[in-house]
Structure formats: structure tokens, C-alpha cells
Amino acid sequence: MSVQPIPKEYTTVTPYLILNDAAKAIAFYLDALGATEAMRLADPSGKVMHAEIRINGSPIMLADEFPEMGFKSPMTIGGSPVSLHLYVEDVDAFVDRAVKAGATLTRPVANQFYGERSGGFEDPFGHVWHIATRVEDLSPEEMQTRFEAAMKSGTPQ
């Protein structure tokens, strides 16, 4: 049997989150986002060297920060330029659950011109999440027309 170059349980791009308290973050993601923990490698003090969770089957790797190696959390550097986009079955319930568990709402859930109902939050560890449920299938032309109308009205999301 030959080794697969891309493991079957992964996509070709997997987010890797650096956190200031990975163990606490894993607990939050399990509770607030319905994640499952796939594995965890921790040193004797409990510091997470590498862990993996899955949200709706999508893998996310994470670890505690190691500033001396250049691995810093958003809390250490004052935010992150990277956000995560997650499709779910019920965006309203998902965002509500995350906010009740301690996330900060950054964008209320609403229908968008591009055919999604979406909203967003920042988790307690500084990572920003965009959550969406597709509600319409649009052609690129329909999306462009709606985008132009939203720009004219001053309400693009």
C-alpha cells in the first residue's frame, strides 16, 4: 500500500491557529462551535505543542504560542489579519451559540447580496470567524449586478 501525499481526512489547505491558551481554546471550540478534538500533543506542563480539531468535518490545526520561534497569537500581536470562513447549516443558531459561549459579535447575521445569510464574531482568543449559510445560488453575472446595486446604495456587506 502506498502513502497518500494528501491524507484523506484533510483538504489541501488547513488553517493553523496559534493561541495564547490552546487548551482553553480547544474547550471553547468544542463547546461554542461544536468542534470535535481529533488529537493533542502536549508537553508535561500541559502546553499544547500541536492539536487538531474538526468543525463540520473541516480540520483546523492549533498550538500554543511560542514567541521565541515566531509563533504568536492574535492576543500578543494585537489582532490578526487572517479570518476564518465557515459554512454551516443554520448560521443564526451557530452564531448565537458562539456568542452565548463568550464570542464577541462583530457582524450581526443578515441576508447578503451574494446569496448567503452570514454574520461574524471574534472568539475569546482573538481569531475572527465569518459564518454563513448559502440561501441562493447566483451566477457570477447576478452577483455582479447585485454588488453594483449594493455599492450604489452604500450597503455592501
UniProtKB/TrEMBL annotation:
<dbReference type="InterPro" id="IPR004360">
    <property type="entry name" value="Glyas_Fos-R_dOase_dom"/>
</dbReference>
<protein>
    <recommendedName>
        <fullName>VOC domain-containing protein</fullName>
    </recommendedName>
</protein>
<feature type="domain" description="VOC">
    <location>
        <begin position="9"/>
        <end position="134"/>
    </location>
</feature>
<dbReference type="InterPro" id="IPR037523">
    <property type="entry name" value="VOC_core"/>
</dbReference>
<dbReference type="Pfam" id="PF00903">
    <property type="entry name" value="Glyoxalase"/>
</dbReference>
<dbReference type="InterPro" id="IPR029068">
    <property type="entry name" value="Glyas_Bleomycin-R_OHBP_Dase"/>
</dbReference>
